């Protein structure tokens, strides 16, 4: 592979970031940015260790960095060095100002993303047979009762979604219903936002209490329609 040690290191860092950020979601749930940052730091540590195993590799690795900082024999890169030395302190100052300046935005609320359901809902199995007819019925019920908020494409972008904060759940996202059991969805749909436990507060959920309007069989069919329409599968004990 042609190119200097730093060029190879940069290509490797970009490749690792692309795999973690863009490649991993194709096989599993998206990784949080904090975990991606950790893996990048581990990769950088490995690059530094490998680049300093011998005297020759150490000079090849640190030499360009040292020359860029000191300005020795840079030639045409003197302008780039001057730009970095000016922009880097400005960037740090802007970041510091942005993190300390007063804001008129309300403070963030700590939220329990998936509070535990009451014991009577834990591990419930869907009693409705998973047939094409029942799935189609569930999608029809979803379209009538759920799609105004959660969207016709099961992506949380219904016509009424913009009126809610936090927005309705995006079922097509592999980090939502794909991580939950059907019994959890049954509890959340049936009891709505008012049925959330105290330990789940503060919670601004506009989910209606659908048990007032929908029989249990309809709710189970809606759940099947949601999973099928979002191209997801419910989590199981197995």
TrEMBL record:
Residue span(s) of domain Cytochrome c: 134-223
GO MF term list: electron transfer activity; heme binding; metal ion binding
InterPro entries per record: Cyt_c-like_dom (IPR009056), Cyt_c-like_dom_sf (IPR036909)
Alphabetical UniProt keywords: Heme, Iron, Membrane, Metal-binding, Transmembrane, Transmembrane helix
Coiled-coil residue windows: none
Highest rank taxon of the organism: Bacteria
Sequence intervals crossing the membrane: 35-53
SUPFAM superfamilies, A to Z: Cytochrome c
Name this polypeptide is given: Cytochrome c
Species: Nitrospira tepida
């Amino acid at each position: 592979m042609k190119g200097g040690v730093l060029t190879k290191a940069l290509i490797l860092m970009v490749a690792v970031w692309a795999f973690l950020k863009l490649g991993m979601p194709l096989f599993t749930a998206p990784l949080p940015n904090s975990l991606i940052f950790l893996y990048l730091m581990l990769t950088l540590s490995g690059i530094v260790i490998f680049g300093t195993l011998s005297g020759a590799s150490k000079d090849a690795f640190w030499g360009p960095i040292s020359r860029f900082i000191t300005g020795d024999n840079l030639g045409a890169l003197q302008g780039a060095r001057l730009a970095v030395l000016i922009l880097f302190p400005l960037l740090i100052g802007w970041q510091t100002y942005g993190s300390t300046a007063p804001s008129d935005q309300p403070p963030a609320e700590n939220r329990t993303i998936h509070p535990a359901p009451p014991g009577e809902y834990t591990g419930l199995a869907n009693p409705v047979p998973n047939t094409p007819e029942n799935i189609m019925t569930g999608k029809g019920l979803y379209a009538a009762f759920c799609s105004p908020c959660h969207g016709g494409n099961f992506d949380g972008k219904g016509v009424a979604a913009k009126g809610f904060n936090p927005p309705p759940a995006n079922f097509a996202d592999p980090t939502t219903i794909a991580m939950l059991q059907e019994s959890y969805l049954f509890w959340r749909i049936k009891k709505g936002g008012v049925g959330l436990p105290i330990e789940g507060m503060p919670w601004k959920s506009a989910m209606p209490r659908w048990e007032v309007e929908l029989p249990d069989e309809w709710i189970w069919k809606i759940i099947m329609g949601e999973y099928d329409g979002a191209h997801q599968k419910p989590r199981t004990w197995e």
